[in-house]
Specification:
Layout lengths: L9 E6 L2 E6 L5 E5 L5 E4 L4 E6 L3 E5 L2 E5 L3 E5 L5 E4 L7 E6 L2 H12 L2 H6 L14 E3 L2 H16 L4 H26 L7 H20 L7 H8 L3 H12 L3 H19 L4 H7 L5 H12 L18
Antiparallel strand pairs: 1-2, 2-3, 3-10, 4-9, 5-8, 5-10, 6-7, 6-9, 8-11
Helix pairs in contact: 1-4, 3-4, 5-6, 6-7, 8-10
Length: about 300
């Protein structure tokens, strides 16, 4: 059966240097280019918010997030949010207002049993309420973003290319939301609203780790980023991820170090210094703990498979 998202007719318009592509009904719209606004506050439709080439602070119903090259935030329909961009920043806007019917269809496909999908393939489902947090960009979405931006910069972006990208992005976002619903059950807080708040704060700390791997990532720092006491943060982090914040940071750092050693002329000692190790033997022990071999044996063709999302 043809994916209904692929059948959408996409119409392009340009305002200044920013391009808007919408389906015929106006239910799905991609905004690509320099931001329309330096600051904005209000509410709108169900949307995927992403900016790259800089960092953009967002507030969604009182929660603070930072959107950058590697992260995005989801905003539910009619949910109040605000953001601001620096006029001097080269940041580019990559925002997709998504048709709730498309999200509902993708949600049903991702969360229902195969039998029910086969029995009634055309059954519609309402769009769920998204878990509001800062999310890492899925590799497939990041690759599509890069492709669309290149086409936009070359002036060749068309409705067909945008239309083909939409289902991939919707599927990736919905899959992350399905996983998040399962993750929430690991947290011991009794109220769902409390679990959602804890989840969002832990995601904020994880995003901070991604953007500051070479800086101080002590328990005190991460707890402060999450606005939690360090003991509460440590307990909740372990509940959610099955590992301590220290182990999570160690694996992320050693993962990045392995990529650096494998893909460039960077020496092992340079990698150790980059990630804050003054002692090469300490770095080698940490690397072996994560990867099972010393960094000196990490070949250029070795493929890294991160253990954590």
């Amino acid at each position: 059966m043809t994916n209904p998202l692929l059948a959408k007719k996409i119409i392009g318009t340009v305002k200044a240097t920013t391009t808007r592509w919408s389906d015929a009904a106006g239910a799905s719209t991609l905004i690509l280019g320099p931001p329309y606004h330096e600051s904005w506050s209000g509410s709108g439709g169900l949307s995927f918010k992403h900016y790259f080439g800089g960092r953009v602070p967002f507030r969604v119903e009182g929660q603070s997030f930072t959107v950058d090259d590697g992260h995005y935030v989801l905003v539910n329909a009619d949910q109040p949010y605000e953001f601001c961009t620096d006029r001097e920043s080269p940041v580019l806007n990559f925002t997709w207002f998504v048709d709730p019917a498309d999200v509902g269809s993708a949600w049903r496909a991702a969360s229902s049993h195969e039998e029910s999908l086969l029995d009634d393939p055309e059954l519609s489902a309402p769009a769920p309420e998204f878990v509001v947090a800062v999310w890492p960009m899925p590799p497939a979405v990041k690759a599509l973003r890069n492709t669309l931006v290149r086409s936009w910069q070359m002036g060749t972006l068309d409705g067909g290319e945008v239309g083909r990208a939409l289902p991939v992005i919707v599927d990736a976002v919905v899959a992350e939301q399905v996983r998040a619903r399962g993750d929430l059950r690991r947290l011991s807080a009794r109220r769902r609203s409390t679990r959602l708040e804890i989840y969002a704060r832990l995601q904020r700390a994880k995003a901070f780790v991604t953007n500051h791997l070479t800086e101080d990532l002590s328990l005190d720092v991460l707890a402060s980023v999450a606005h939690m006491s360090k003991y509460h943060f440590s307990r909740c982090f372990r509940e959610l991820h099955g590992a301590s914040p220290y182990d999570y940071v160690l694996r992320r750092r050693m993962g990045a170090a392995a990529e650096l050693i494998a893909s460039s002329a960077c020496s092992v000692s340079d990698a150790a210094t980059a990630f804050g190790y003054d002692d090469l033997s300490s770095f080698s022990r940490a690397f072996r703990r994560v990867h099972g071999i010393p960094p000196s044996r990490w070949g250029r063709k070795k493929t890294l498979r991160p253990r954590y999302r």
